[in-house]
Structure prediction request, 614 residues.
Amino acid sequence: MELLLASAIGLLAAGGIWLVLRARTFPVVLGLALLSYAVNLFLFVAGGVRTGAPPVAGLGAMTDPLPQALVLTAIVIGFAMTAFLLVLALRLRQAARSDHVDGKG
Amino acid sequence: MRHLVLLPFVLPAFAACVLLMLASRPRLQRAVSMLAAVAIAAVVLVLALRARGGVVETYAMGDWPAWIGIVFVADRLSTFMLCLTAAVAVPALLYASHRWDRQGPHFHPLFHLLWAGLDGAFLTGDLFNLFVCFELMLIASYALLQHGGGTARLAAGVHYVVLNLLGSALFLVAVGLLYRAGGTLNLADMAVAAAAADPADAPWWRAGCGLLLVVFLLKGAIAPLCLWLPATYAAAAAPVAAMLAVLTKVGAYAVLRVGGTFAFAAFATPWLHPAVLAAALVTLVVAALGAVAARTLSTLAAWLGLASSALMLTAFAVPEVAAAGGGLFYALPGTLGLAALLLLADAIRAARGASGDALERAPRMGGATALGALYVVSAVTLAGLPPLAGFLGKALILAGSADHPWVWGVVLACSLLQLVALVRAGTRLFWSVEPRPAAHVRPGLAPVAAIALLLASVVGVTVGAGPLSRFTAGAAAAAREPSAHLEAVLGAQRLRWTVRVPVEEGASR
Prediction:
C-alpha cells in the first residue's frame, strides 16, 4: 500500500514538474494541477497510512482527522488558484497573441 | 479588551465585504476605505503599545486550547510588523484615492483583503494558519497586480503566480513532513515537540524545516529565487507595488519567527546560518548591480526593494541577536523609504509627460521642487545616509555583525553602488534638464501628501529611534529565545497533547 501511494505521489510530482518547466502556459497550468494532486496525496498520507479505521471516536483506533482537514483546505485553495491562473493565461494569450509563458512569440 | 488582538485581521476582512457592496458608489467607497484604514492603524498602535516590555497576548479562536485550536499571538515582533504594514497601507490608499483606484474594478476590497492576509500572517501562531493567510494575501496580490491591465502586467502576473503556486506546493509538503514529525502544527507546541524529539525522527524535522526555509526565502526573494521581484514591482501599479514591498518582508519575518521558535534548532546543522548568509549577500550584490543598471526610476526602485529585503535577511542570518534586532529596526525605514520611492516614481512619470520616468535628459517636470525634495529624502533613507533612520538601521546591523568582515564589506560596497545609482537618477531627473519649456502637469495634492506622509513617518522613526530600537532588539531576542511565547501559548507547565491517535496492530505506522 505504501509502495503504491509513494509511487503515485512520485509519478504525479515528476509529471507535474516536467510540465511546469514547459514554455507554453497551458502545460504549465496542467503541471501545477498534477503537482497539487501529488502534494494533497502526500499531505493526506502524512497522517499515517491506515486502511479500514473508523472515522468516529469511540469505536477503536480512529483515523486522524487533521490531515483530512488540511487536505480539504488545500484542495479548495488550489482550486481557486487554478481557476485564476487559467483566466490569467487566457487573457495573456489573447493580449500577446501567443501562448508562450513570457508573453512573446 | 482581549478581542483587540483579533481586530487587525477581522477589520480589513469586514471592510472588504462592505466595500464590495459599495462598488457602485466610488466616493463613498473611498471614504469608507480610508476610515477603515485609519481604524486599523489605531488598533495596531494600541496593540504595539500594549506589547512593549515583553507582554505576550494570545487569543485562542473559539477558546479552544492551544493544541487543538488556532492561536493568535501578539508579541513585540508581531505588533511591529503590523505597525509596519499599517504605516505603508494608509499612505498607499491615500495615493490610490487620487487616480489609481478607478483604473480597474474592486481596488479597495482587494486592498483590504491583502491587508487582512498580511495581518493574519503576522499574528498567527499556527503553521497551517500561516499557510492559509499566505494564500489569502497572495491571491489578493495576484488580482491587484493586474489592476490597470496591460500586456506587461499579464506577463509579469503569470510568472509571479506560477512561482508562488510552486512555493505553496512546497509549503504544503513541508507541513506534511512536520506534522508527521511532531504530531502538531501549533508553533509553540512544535517547539516543545522538536526539543523532545526522538533522534530517529530527525530526518523528518530536518526535511520539513529545510523546505520551509526554501519557501520563506522564495517569498523574501533571496538568490537564486530573486529575479521575479524586479519584474513584478516594475509592472505593478504604484500603490500595489508599495504593498508588495511589505509582502517580501513577510518572508523574512517568517524566517525569524518560525526559525527562532523551532526550525533552526530542529535543523541542527552548522552550515545553515552561513549558507543563508551567503545567499543573502549574493542577493545584495545582484540587487546593487541591477540598481546601477536600471534605466527607469521604477526599475531602480524595484532593485532597491530587492536590496532592502536582502539586507534584512542578512541581518537575520547572522547568528548574533543584536544584528537581528538591527535588521528588524531597518525594516521600518527601509520599507517606508522604498514605498515612498515607488509612489514617487509613479508621480514623476505622471508629471514628466512624454519621457515618463526614464532616466534620461528631458524638460523640467511640473512640480519639480516638491517632487525633488521628496526624492532627496527618500534617497537619503534608502541609501542609508545620516541623519535619517535608514543610516541608523544599517549602523545597527553592522554593529551587530562585527565578527563578520564579509558582511561589512559586501553591505558597504553595495550601499555605495546603491548611492551611485540614486544620485545618478536624481541628477538625470532633476538637475540636468533640457532647456526646453517645462511640461506643466503638476502632481496632485493627494499623491504628494501620501509620499510626504511616508517620509514624515521615516523622520518620526528617526526621532523615536531610541525606544524603537530597544523595542525591536527585544522583539528579535524574544523571537530567538521563545520561552515567553511558549509560556503564553502553552501555559506555565508547557503541557502538550499530541494528536497522534492510538495505533492498532497491523496498521502501518
Summary: The interface with chain B takes residues 1-2, 20, 25, 28, 32, 35-36, 39-40, 42-43, 45-51, 53, 60-64, 66-67, 70, 73-74, 77, 80-81, 84-85, 88-89, 91-92, 95-96, 101-103 of chain A (CB under 8 Å). Residues 2 and 49 of chain A are 7 Å apart (CA to CA). Chain A has a mean pLDDT of 89. The radius of gyration of chain A is 18 Å.
